[in-house]
Structure formats: structure tokens, C-alpha cells
Amino acid sequence: MKTIATAVQAFFADEDGVTAIEYGLIAALVGVAMAGAAKLLGAEIKTTFNNVVTSLKSATAP
């Protein structure tokens, strides 16, 4: 019975898996933040590129 108790204690003391899970959660949070920022800035970026295209077309028109 002592060996099972010792194995259970060793399992709970091992923190290697916890670190991997924390890194996974941080990566997921960064991904969600990037997706949110892209959605918020998407319309502004599209407008800026459309303005550049319009300016280039009018500058090269004869």
C-alpha cells in the first residue's frame, strides 16, 4: 500500500505537465487577442489600402 501512496504523491508533485498547459493557455490567449485586433483594425486597413490604390490610379491617369 505504501508504494501506491508514494506513486500518487509523486504524481501530484510533478509539475511538468502544468507548465505545458500554462504555455498552451497563454498561446491561445495571444491568438484570441490577435484575432480581435485584426477584426477591429481590418476595416481601417482596408480603407487605407483603397485610398492608396485610388491615389495611384489618379496619379498615373493621363
TrEMBL record:
Transmembrane regions listed in the UniProt entry: 20-41
| Top-level taxonomic group | Bacteria
Protein keywords: Membrane, Transmembrane, Transmembrane helix
- Membrane as a keyword of this entry, yes or no, is yes
Q: Which InterPro entries match?
A: Flp_Fap
Q: What is this protein called?
A: Flp family type IVb pilin
Q: Which organism is it from?
A: Massilia jejuensis
Source species taxonomy: Bacteria, Pseudomonadati, Pseudomonadota, Betaproteobacteria, Burkholderiales
